[in-house]
């Protein structure tokens, strides 16, 4: 059964955040809030956790396109090829924010991302995922939670999310109702921003 932890942005309890960190380090899956929608996350360096995440999304790990959640742009060089000054300025002017930026990947990606030519980077404008990444010491893998509803594409009620994923994840962070608009996906691999999916973020 998934453990529900009520962690709110204005005053996140350190002991509860530490419990999330421990779960991630032990290969657990979490559901967490962001500046857009609720999402599934795990430790990017734990291959078994990454495989479980792929199974949840009904895809093979090598085909999965999981974003990497950072708390700032300091981790960019860990995963991406060197970027020019104008691209960095562009990123800095839009992050933190509701965007996923596609960048050219380098060869130092975690094992689960092996052979990926590009990588999606997110820096959510939300204190909880930022705090998780900061305390964990490195980014987490992430994928959005889709809803089966034909009208509402993304789940917003953490209690309903917890009910649905009760036996599939280890922790659900209840931070109140989430948004139902996903991030805007922007491809920066050509040097010019190309919107792949229009979401909450406006370029």
From TrEMBL:
It comes from the Bacteria. Pfam families: Sua5_yciO_yrdC. Residues 14-201 form the YrdC-like domain. InterPro entries: DHBP_synth_RibB-like_a/b_dom, Sua5-like_dom, SUA5_domain. One of its GO terms (molecular function) is double-stranded RNA binding. NCBIfam families: L-threonylcarbamoyladenylate synthase (TIGR00057). This is Translation factor Sua5. It comes from Chryseobacterium angstadtii.
